[in-house]
Amino acid sequence: MIRQSIFYVLAFVMLGVFQGGGTALAATQYATPTVINDTVTSAIAYTGSWQLYSARGVGDYADDVHATIYNNDYFVFTFTGTGVEYVTEKDSGLGDVDIYIDNVLQATVNCYNATRLSQQTVFSKTGLAPGTHTLKAVKKNGTYMIVDAMKFYPIGSVYVNNATSVAVGSYEIAYTGSWQHYKNRGVGDYDNDVHATIYNNDYFQFTFEGTGIDYISEKDAGLGTVDIYIDGVFQTTVNCYNGSLLAQQTVYSKVGLAPGTHTFKAVKTGGTYMMVDALKVYYDAQSLYDDYNKSIVYTSGAFSSSTALAGPLNGSMHWTTTANASAELSFYGNSIQYVGTKNTDHGFVDVYIDDVFAATVDTYGSSRQWQYVFFTKTWTTSGTHKIKIVCKNQKNAASSSIGFDLDVFKYTYDPEELAAKPLWQGTTMNNETLLLYSPDGSPASAPLLFAPTSIISVKSSRLDIEYLENVDWTYANGKLTRTANSRIPYVTYADMYPSTSSAYTQPRTGGGYIRYGGDTFWFDKQIVITYTHAANAWTGPTPTFAGSTLVNTMSKLNNHSNLKLVLYGDSISVGANTSAFMKVVPYMASWGKQVARSLEKVYGSNVSFVNPSVGGEQSLWGKNNAATYVASENPDLVIIAFGMNDGTAVSAVSPATFKSNIASIIDTVRATKPQAEFILVGTTLANSEAANFSSLQSQYITVLDQIAAEKTGVVTANMTGVHQTLLQTKPFRDMTGNNVNHPNDFLSRWYGQFITGLLVQ
């Protein structure tokens, strides 16, 4: 089963219940936005004489603002999403601000108020086409202008519940026929409700903007056939019958659609009834190869370039007027765009995909148009491809030259396919995270896990900004170092070790405080690097295929049978603080979902994944609730992943007690499902500088290994050893989502890959 890349769930507010046939539309309701503080200069670019004012104590977001007193000073916020909000103060000294979206004037907003009001949304724009946009705000008058924060509505994948016909941005779902709404059935449906009909030819239709869709229903003895249409074209008939009830079943999935607006229609054709539980809409993650990327091969000596232009992405561009000169890129993805500039002296360009001629594009324009998309190619699944653009030596009659330029190649890819590639194998490290640190005013730097033979790219954690060598960074002696005028974010000693206690601190081992928080602070400061390295560079634990131990699990997978997988643990198992958990690009799914989807893809089985994990809980809670949350699911395979909270200094659980609790969970499940099998995960470590958190975590893997030796059908995943090995080279801050105990995307990928490696040869 092929699954598309991003599984970020937007929370929709119920605005009414649709109980009968026909169409009913409710008011638009958007997802909870992502908040970007004014200090995140990787996303907000300030032009003019702006100053940062911190610890003002007047209620600002994160207790700081940026401000200027000069008219025509401005900032530009770049975001990937469908909506944006400008958050400031209102006060007697504030005045008018001009707002531009994608360089088009939208409004002039007035920030005046007789008394101060904090965290005021003075401008909001939603319903933008999914993609990358800019908001520019220019000081027009008043004594000063303030930026407190920006909010944007990201794109990703969206669950749309069955329970009402709603309009969400460009989404619309409508029921036709005699549908009924059934709530609180307690059988595991999404949001605990479904819509159902008993009449053949009743249908629902769903309009969405994206690249793929899943239809989620139950399977049961009373359910039958449903005809599926995409954009008015019949696709297939799906059968929702099963001898026993299965909840949240993806009965139809379609990915690889061209980005844009589509319709999905499902018609009841057989069975006693038809159900709708939810629909899931997909977007791809978009990234880029800027024109300065070393992966782009230019005809030697034929191109000129600059990094100081006003119009191109990141200010850089390559151009040529040499006939047959070319630029070539090999990449991994499921779509590619050639982006350049239209101008009066531009000619024809031949485009080749995978060494096959694809198109000739005319890059002439009667005036200059920056960041123009000349060519787009899509594939149904991600793979390795090549694009080559060639100066054709022909031109429009109106053009004065045959030349062309390259601004950027933009591509989409499946992050879960990338996440599934074992980081300990091969010779390419993809998207290792770094957090550049300056403890004493020296240039901020961070070490790489392996010694690079070639650095392919350095990008923002959202993958939308590429940082340039010798402009933004240099590499030497195992470290990436920030240049003086770099755009790369970084942290200082004051950032890492605040002098006073607050909601964003935790006690530091030895005294004082460390910066803490589950917001996007760490994500916004971290960057990702992709590079090649020598083979066999990893010296830490790797998974050994456990097929001879997990016999029942492998039998189901090899026979393409349904597999019930339950993940039972704490907040790390919930997914905190992956990008999907925080609702930010690239929406990397939690490691449990990564495992489930990898198994589906490799074996073609339907993996029913259930995750009753609860943040903050210990193994004793797991023991006491195993019957309710795990045994009741009748699981085939259970992943047990407690230990982080058991090992905290303030409530440490002895290894012997921890072992007893985990063994009890196994016994409870096997009392009702004797053939159930188990993977026991040794937790990653807490920050050694977090006084209240770091204690016994490293000791639990030993007793988990003892359980695996004592019980059949049980194996361990030594994430403790993986993290210990990583920490020999990389600091904790590079791999965390909250600086205390939660992994970021990079460390979460290690979880998913290691556990998948126990089940895939």
TrEMBL record:
InterPro entries: Ester_Hydrolysis_Enzymes, SGNH_hydro, SGNH_hydro_sf. Residues 1-26 form the signal peptide. This is GDSL-type esterase/lipase family protein. Keywords: Signal. Pfam families: Lipase_GDSL_2. Residues 568-745 form the SGNH hydrolase-type esterase domain. It comes from the Bacteria.
